Each structure stands twice: as C-alpha cells, then as structure tokens.
Amino acid sequence: MRPQEHLPLTPEQYLIQERQAEFKSEYLNGEIFAMAGATREHNQISSNIVISLGSQLLDKPCSVYSSDMKVKIAHTNKYTYPDIVTACDPQRFEDEHTDVLLNPTVIIEILSDSTEAYDRGLKFFHYQRLESLREYLLVSQKSCLLEKYARQGDNLWAYSEFHDLADCVTLSALDCVLKLGDIYRKVELKEPII
Questions:
Q1: Per-residue tens of pLDDT for the chain, all 194 residues
Q2: Cα distance between residue 93 and residue 99, in whole Å
Q3: Which one-letter DSSP state was computed for residue 57?
Q4: Which residues are within 8 A (CB) of 117 and not within 5 positions of it... i.e. 6 or more apart?
Q5: Rounded CA gap, 190 and 56, in Å?
Q6: Burial level of 72, CB count in 10 A (0-12/13-18/19+)?
Q7: 15 C-beta neighbours (distance < 10 Å), count
Q8: How far apart are CA 111 and CA 100, in angstroms?
Q9: Are 44 and 187 in contact (CB under 8 A)?
Q10: What is the distance between the alpha carbons of residues 54 and 173, in angstroms, rounded to a whole number?
Q11: 80-107: buried (b, 16+ CB within 10 Å) or exposed (e) per residue?
Q12: Under the phi-then-psi rule, with left for phi > 0, alpha for psi from -120 to 50, and beta for the rest, what region is 130?
C-alpha cells in the first residue's frame, strides 16, 4: 500500500475524515492508505462467508461484520478494515459511533494479487497484537484454499490449510463451521483445485 497523503494525521483527525470520505482508507502512525476496490469473486466469497457465519451466530452472543467495520490496533497505532470480522460480547468500540471495533475474535482476509503479501506479513503482524483475536483466516479467490491461524498462546499460532470443497473448517472461538463448498459457491476459480 502507498501513503495517500504526506501530512501526518492524529487518529482523531483520521476518524473525522474517514467517516465523511467517499472511499475507505486505512491508518498507520499518522499516514493514511487508500484501499483498492474488490473483484466479483472477492465480493461473492465475502458474501458467502458472512451468510454462513451470520446464520450460525444468530442465537449466539457474537456478531459478524463485513468490510465496513474498522478495527483499531492500539499497540501499533493502526486502523484497518478487515474483509470480515467477528466479535463476541461484550463487544467494545472506540466511541459512540460504534464503527471502530476494539476486540475482534476472528478476522478473515480474502487474498488478492495486490494485498496477499501484506495480509500474510505486516498486516498479520499487526493483528497478532490484538489480545482478543483467536483465529485469523486467509481465503484465496483464485483457487480452493483456506489457511487458518489459531492462537495457541501469547506468541504461538497453529497453522492449518484446507484445499477441498468438501473440507469443513472449525472456528473454535465462535463454535461455528465454515464449509469450503459454501465459501466458493457461485465463484469461478481461476486456478485448478490443489
């Protein structure tokens, strides 16, 4: 990502500007970074996951949010827009606007050519600073592939990956299951299934 502006902004200035902006931007240490638009596949995968998780969370004390919910990572002075984020009660927000979540439980990023390295690297580094985060998922939009990182301790994450449309991914933090067949419904994969 490239900085959108060169004048450093305070978090308060960023939030005022962002809440009025036509396009979304992320924030890190005074700089804002414009976010790119999403492909049809990205949007379909996101919708499929939100529908699946949302229906499973209806009677549970957790909520699922799509890409318009910001997450604040106080430890690294960052505001970001995950593709999908869940939080369980008591949910905490930065202020009365309830558009900046402080305690996400599960974060899901849908990989694209322009964001994949960032989602796997520096963005995950930032996310790991969130004490509430239990699981982090990376979902390919090119091939049938879901990667899951599950927190095992303060600095320990267990990795697993799933490649088959018949695979089911358990999200222990939410007591939910994501089926790859549901995630990739109506999605034309560009690369063969691994």
A1: 455 546 789 999 999 999 999 889 989 989 998 887 789 999 999 999 999 999 999 999 999 999 999 999 999 999 999 999 999 999 999 999 999 999 999 999 999 988 899 999 999 999 999 999 999 999 999 999 999 999 998 889 999 999 999 999 999 999 999 999 999 999 999 876 65
A2: 7
A3: H
A4: none
A5: 29
A6: buried
A7: 20
A8: 22
A9: yes
A10: 14
A11: bbbbbbbbbeebebbeeeeebbebbbbb
A12: beta
Task: Specify the residue for token string 């699946």.
Answer: 52
Q: Tell the residue number behind the tokens 């600073």, with chain if given.
A: 129
Q: Which residues pair with 63 in a beta bridge?
A: 87
Assign domain 40-69+82-183 one CATH number from 3.40.50.2000, 3.40.50.300, 2.60.120.260, 3.90.1570.10. Answer: 3.90.1570.10
Adjacent-strand bridge partners of 149: 136, 159
DSSP state of 161: E
Degrees to nearest 5, angle at CA 71 with 1 and 28: 40
